[in-house]
Amino acid sequence: MAIHLTKESKVLVQGMTGAEGMKHTRRMLAAGTDVVGGVNPRKAGRTVDFGERSVPVFGSVREGIERTGADVTVVFVPPAFAKAAVTEAADAGIGLAVVITEGIPVHDSVAFTAHAKARGTRVVGPNCPGLISPGQSNAGIIPPDITKPGPVGLVSKSGTLTYQLMYELREVGFSTCVGIGGDPVVGTTHIDCLAAFEDDPDTELVVLIGEIGGDAEERAADYIRDHVTKPVVGYIAGFTAPEGRTMGHAGAIVSGSSGTARAKRAALEAAGVRVGSTPTETARHVLAALGRPARDGAGA
């Protein structure tokens, strides 16, 4: 089992014929993802050779769905075209839109996430690494060869920390790893993933990675306290961030105690979450909760 993405998922790539789209489509195919088509109106009707597999290019998402039964799209288009790309996918009835593009104006993200939600399309991102269900499917840019299938679910604002925890716990493995993105507006939240992992019978424990700024982690803590029965282990990036300054891609602004790593840690710990001070310590908390020796994961 996994959440949001399985071996049955059929994936389109909007922007597949661009440099980034080509590179990561090749990597997704190598990871076993069923990439069934690309979307580019200017190159519709062509076929792109990826070695052992040739992938057709369609003129629209709707055509791709009608011809292949696709239920997932991965968006590799420039920021100026992202709103139109996601809106098109939602209007075509896609189930999941994974928006890798960074630098999208916030008002565009507000518009397309609301539009997609109204049409029943889940958006992961924007400005995210995507998601991977190891051994099943990989939609985005997460390196597929640093972990294996296993009992841990992971939801993270940070792409880099997603990769690091996957590596730290590579001998344990993951059901699904979801990089939700750190922009001020995202389509899928920590809470959305916590709910899905709670319902997934093959996920035994959840790792939650947050960042300074905003109150997403505090809201997740409230949800964990009231609705999550599985163990949750957390990590918050930004303990050394100075107050009153915008930090990193998240655009996180820390003012007083609001949005600080310490405040988030306190909220999570009050909900019963074990929070690591470093990624390695976080991984060790996971191993302890699973009853596994340290040599099976962190520091191996």
TrEMBL record:
Keyword Manganese assigned: no
Name of one Pfam family that matches: Ligase_CoA
Keywords: Ligase, Nucleotide-binding, Tricarboxylic acid cycle
Protein name: Succinate--CoA ligase [ADP-forming] subunit alpha
GO molecular function, one term: succinate-CoA ligase (ADP-forming) activity
Main function: Succinyl-CoA synthetase functions in the citric acid cycle (TCA), coupling the hydrolysis of succinyl-CoA to the synthesis of either ATP or GTP and thus represents the only step of substrate-level phosphorylation in the TCA. The alpha subunit of the enzyme binds the substrates coenzyme A and phosphate, while succinate binding and nucleotide specificity is provided by the beta subunit.
Boundaries of every CoA-binding domain copy: 4-104
Active site: H249
Top EC class of this enzyme: ligase
Protein residues bound to CoA: T17, G18, A19, E20, K43, I100, T101, E102
Originating organism: Streptomyces parvulus
Family: Belongs to the succinate/malate CoA ligase alpha subunit family.
Assembly and binders: Heterotetramer of two alpha and two beta subunits.
Catalytic activity, as annotated: GTP + succinate + CoA = succinyl-CoA + GDP + phosphate; succinate + ATP + CoA = succinyl-CoA + ADP + phosphate
Residues annotated for substrate binding in this entry: Y163
SMART domains: CoA_binding
Source species taxonomy: Bacteria, Bacillati, Actinomycetota, Actinomycetes, Kitasatosporales
